[in-house]
Amino acid sequence: MKNRIYWIFAGLLMAAIFAASGIPDLSLYDSAKLPPGWLIWISNHTIRFGKSGFFSYMVSPHPDYVLHKLGHIFAFGFLGISLYLAAGRSLKRGVLITAVFAASDELHQFFVAGRSSRLADIILDVCAAILFIWLFKGCRRLTGKERAESTEG
Fold first, then answer.
1. What global pTM score does this model have?
2. What are phi and psi of 90, to 5 degrees?
C-alpha cells in the first residue's frame, strides 16, 4: 500500500513535468523587466558550448535560465526521491526510471515549438535525482528513522 502512494505521487510529478514541457516558448521571466545594463552584463557572462542542437548547451546568469534550471533540479530531484521510494528503496531502479523519463521528456520538448532538447538537461535531471535521494537518505539517517524502519521490517 505504501509503495502505491509513492507510485501515484511519482505519476503526478511526471504528469506535471510533461505538461510544463509541452508549453510552447515557455518563459518564466520577462527580459523587458531587466535594466539595459544588466542585459549587457548577462550577455557578456553567458557561456555557450556548441552552436545548436542536442549536444550544445549554454550557462547564463539570466533569471529565466536560472529559474528553468532550478525547475529541472527540484522537479527531477523530488521525482527521484518518489521513484526511489516507489521502487522499494532501490537507488539503481529509482535513478534508472528517472533517467528514462528525463530522456523521454527531452524528446517530447524536441517537438514543442520554441523549446529545445539537450543532453545536458538529461544529465542535470539525473544528477538532481541522485543528489536529492542522497540528501533524503542522509536526513533519514540523522533522524534515526532509517535504522528504526530497517529493524521493524
1. 0.88
2. -95, 110
What CA–CA distances, in Å, run from 151 to 81, 134, 146?
22, 21, 9
Q: Give the DSSP letter of residue 32.
A: G
Q: Is residue 142 part of a domain?
A: yes
Is there a domain that residue 140 lies in? yes
Distance from first CA to last CA of the chain, Å, rounded?
Answer: 15
For 2-55, the pLDDT digits (tens) are 789 999 999 999 999 999 999 999 898 888 889 989 999 999 999 999 988 899
Phi, psi of 99 (to 5 degrees): -65, -40
pLDDT in tens, 74-88: 999 999 999 999 999
| Residue 53, all three cell numbers | 542542437
